[in-house]
Design goal:
This protein has 333 residues and is an all-alpha fold. It is built from 14 helices and no strands.
Length: 333
Amino acid sequence: MRVSTGLLGVLGLLVVLVVAITLSLAVGSGSVPLSDVWNGLFSPDRTVEGQLIMQELRIPRTAAGLFAGAALGLAGAVIQGVTRNPLADPGLLGINAGASAAVVFAISALGITAADGYIWFGFIGAAVAATVVYGVGSLGREGATPVKLALAGQATSAALLALTTAILLQDTRTYDLYRFWQVGSLIGRDSAVIWQAAPFIGIGVLVALTLGSQLNALALGDDVARGLGQKVGLIRLVSAATVVLLTGAATVVAGPISFVGLVVPHAVRMLSGADYRWVLPQSMLLGPSLLLVSDVIGRLIARPGELQVGIVTAMVGAIPFIVLVRRRKLAEL
């Protein structure tokens, strides 16, 4: 693919992202004058209700969508590239299930109730689950093949889901705290949680954006990649660690949100082709756009209440994904 095509895609998606950010700040279940939106951003007066709403609710909510969406979009692209599986997402490798099980353990056994206390448990759970999946998937002569990783991920997810359910059925207090986080939402996200997760997402983004050439080589098959001088095992290990970092941080910020990591890379490939040097940055831009627009839709369709963004992304993402499945060859990675 020519560089100009990829660059035009990045610039176009930047424009889309700016529009999504503007909508997220200006549109909500309650009406805020545009003058308060502007002043709430650049010269806030917290005695004015509209500007207080901007400072306390919409700016943190938009920041949460930006960080979580960028991390999920990028993680989905890396997973699909490293497993060569067009239907892969963080759930396939058991990463979401690991983070969820660790958060439930933190609430039930350690009595942690604040969202900013979940972050380390989310990382630990995601890392342990990914390690187990990679270890099990690496057994045997052929090593960690895409099929073996997917099967190991599904088996680990089933086991962790059973463990999580067993804990929740016996502890109604933990279930009450966990069910809100489980759905996936940008509502009421504390700035402290976002800033805690931001460095981890930043590191994950920097590492992921360097993997484009390696993922292009893996797309040709392991033997060809080795022939081109790539260290296949090391690439898979670094990619898995990056996905854990991005998914763990995004899950702590917004809960386990589905479809963003699955749909975004496919939409980007339709736009700019299968070159991962451009798929990765474009997925990083399209992910937050999808998440923020879905959040705005959730605020508008259930007035005066709101529909949580995890539910909206499932509905918004499912329709174009079905169209993609019917119109394109998903194995074209």
